[in-house]
């Protein structure tokens, strides 16, 4: 299959091109001749900023240690070694916390599937220290949410993400809630969905049937099956514009494992993520030299995957942090359009229709007793117009779609 993927990379900075070249190297390989020139002339302060922004410094540390080149300043190798050491401690702490949480849930008969964190680092990289993670994400059945919250509070966690809801819209507008342990400094995200609405995804029971057991620790820790993990990682990365290259590096590592491609393609087609899977493969091919093989062809044949890959280069060209508002106006406008373009036609209709469902802002504008909340449906257009006239533009819908 033709691996020549046309994406605009010619105007990437020299430091970003060097970073991509290093991360694309196979174990034991060497840099290409032109890339050595990038290394000798690199602005190392900018290179360090890029590595930290994209959360790829553990992998870069490994590459630089293997190279042992005199052209790499000592302060750079020392800094990456220090960052790598700190990350190792962080990942070990998360591993210990993951084991404790899993133990408590298991004793109470609560099923949980860990989505990211140490189990993914061990699975994709063979070593928890080679991937960064700042929190623990796990998926539970929605019916267990109240019990899980009680257990986390009993373990010292404090709920950090209080969701205001009208008529239980939180169940589909949102997909997780956040807890923080004040003394341990650990954050956990409790998911009842993989992604926010509008999205189609497997039920918890389906994911549980296909789960894998991690060998990271002696206690059973469960995480997503390979094909489910691919779908989750590409949907998550796409929603964030692949603004951190670590997510694309995860895709490369996963693709290099033994994926069941016919099964994966059926799964992505069923849940309307084929175009997003194709986007991820195209970006990983162009940026990290991932070979595109014939079994991937069904995900790459549509134009939408190519368009989305081109759109994602907007984020690659910039150090965009979508979690630190306010965003620059240019980024904010582009991101809104990009998120909408990710949706299928049916999902776009669902998203537009969701504007008719009451929002918490309606409750703020005209407080009504809970027994009368159903009246927000006919009143919603008027309440929305009132806020517009009051110069309080409603941004809630976009925020929900942008939610992590």
UniProtKB/TrEMBL annotation:
It comes from the Bacteria. This is Putative nucleotidyltransferase-like protein. InterPro entries: NTP_transf_5. The lineage of its organism: Bacteria, Bacillati, Bacillota, Bacilli, Bacillales. Keywords: Transferase. GO terms for molecular function: transferase activity. It holds the Pfam family NTP_transf_5. It comes from Paenibacillus prosopidis.
């Amino acid at each position: 299959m033709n691996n020549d993927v046309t994406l605009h990379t010619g105007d990437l900075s020299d430091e970003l091109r060097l970073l991509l070249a290093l991360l694309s190297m196979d174990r034991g390989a060497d840099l290409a001749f032109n890339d050595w020139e990038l290394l000798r002339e690199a602005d190392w302060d900018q290179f360090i900023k890029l590595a930290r922004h994209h959360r790829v410094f553990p992998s870069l540390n490994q590459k630089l240690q293997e190279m042992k080149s005199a052209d790499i300043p000592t302060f750079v190798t020392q800094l990456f070694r220090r960052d790598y050491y700190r990350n190792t401690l962080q990942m070990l702490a998360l591993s210990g916390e993951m084991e404790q949480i899993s133990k408590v849930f298991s004793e109470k008969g609560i099923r949980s599937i860990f989505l990211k964190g140490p189990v993914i680092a061990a699975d994709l990289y063979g070593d928890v220290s080679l991937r960064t993670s700042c929190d623990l994400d796990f998926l539970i059945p929605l019916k267990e949410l109240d019990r899980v919250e009680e257990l986390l509070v009993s373990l010292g966690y404090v709920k950090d993400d209080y969701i205001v809801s009208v008529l239980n819209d939180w169940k589909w507008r949102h997909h997780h809630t956040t807890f923080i342990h004040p003394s341990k400094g650990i954050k956990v995200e409790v998911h009842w969905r993989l992604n926010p609405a509008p999205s189609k995804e497997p039920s918890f029971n389906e994911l549980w049937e296909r789960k894998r057991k991690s060998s990271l620790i002696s206690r059973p820790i469960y995480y997503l099956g390979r094909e489910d993990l691919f779908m989750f990682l590409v949907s998550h990365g796409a929603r964030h514009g692949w603004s951190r290259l670590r997510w694309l590096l995860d895709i490369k590592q996963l693709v290099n494992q033994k994926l069941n491609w016919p099964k994966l393609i059926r799964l992505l087609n069923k849940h309307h993520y084929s175009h997003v899977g194709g986007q991820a493969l195209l970006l990983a091919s162009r940026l990290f030299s991932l070979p595109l093989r014939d079994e991937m062809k069904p995900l790459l044949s549509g134009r939408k995957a190519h368009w989305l890959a081109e759109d994602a280069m907007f984020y690659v060209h910039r150090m965009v942090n979508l979690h630190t508002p306010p965003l620059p106006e240019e980024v904010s406008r582009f991101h809104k359009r990009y998120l909408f373009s990710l949706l299928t036609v049916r999902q776009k209709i669902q998203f537009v229709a969701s504007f008719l469902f009451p929002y918490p802002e309606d409750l703020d504008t005209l407080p009504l007793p809970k027994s009368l909340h159903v009246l927000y449906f006919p009143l919603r257009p008027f309440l929305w117009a009132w806020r517009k006239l009051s110069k309080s533009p409603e941004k809630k819908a976009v925020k929900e779609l942008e939610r992590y």
